[in-house]
Design goal:
There is one protein chain. This protein is an alpha+beta fold. The protein has one domain: Nucleoside Triphosphate Pyrophosphohydrolase. The chain is 26% helix and 35% strand. The protein has 3 helices and 7 strands, in the order αββββαβββα. Strands 1, 2, 3, 4, 5, 6 and 7 form a 7-stranded mixed β-sheet that branches. The N and C termini lie far apart (57 Å).
Length: 136
């Protein structure tokens, strides 16, 4: 019973995700960072993903983007530049920061992909559009 109450207390104090999403095209020259979705996440279109995710209630979109990117990759991006919004997702671009990528359990691997090869990736159309917009 004590464990149940502790879990419930943790659940009700947890910040709630909202429907707003921020994603980043993180680039180094003409290459961008892609993350491979874990099996849990493959229900979405495309096996590859851009770093970012859902904001929490009351969170500034850029702060949420920076938090999500760090949670998913271990990278701390600076000065993201807004590209465009599509549906509930806002896309940004950011320069690849110093440091190594350390992916979370939401993804199984990562790779850097040249803009010349982006059309060959299993990536959703809106993510592909964001990459092309960021590196045009």
């Amino acid at each position: 019973m004590k464990l149940l109450l502790e879990n419930w207390r943790e659940y009700i104090s947890e910040e709630k995700d909202i429907d707003k999403v921020a994603k980043a095209v993180i680039y180094d020259g003409d290459e961008v960072l892609l993350l491979k979705r874990s099996n849990y996440m493959e229900k979405h279109s495309g096996a590859w993903d851009l770093p970012g995710g859902h904001l929490v209630e009351g969170e500034d979109i850029e702060e949420g983007l920076i938090r999500e990117v760090e949670e998913e990759t271990g990278l701390k991006i600076a000065d993201p530049v807004e590209l465009f919004s599509r549906g509930n997702t806002t896309f940004y671009k950011a320069v690849m920061p110093e440091g190594s990528v350390e992916i979370s359990n939401e993804h199984t691997e990562y790779k850097m992909v040249s803009i010349d090869n982006i059309d060959d990736q299993e990536l959703s159309t809106k993510y592909r559009d964001a990459v092309k917009e960021a590196l045009k």
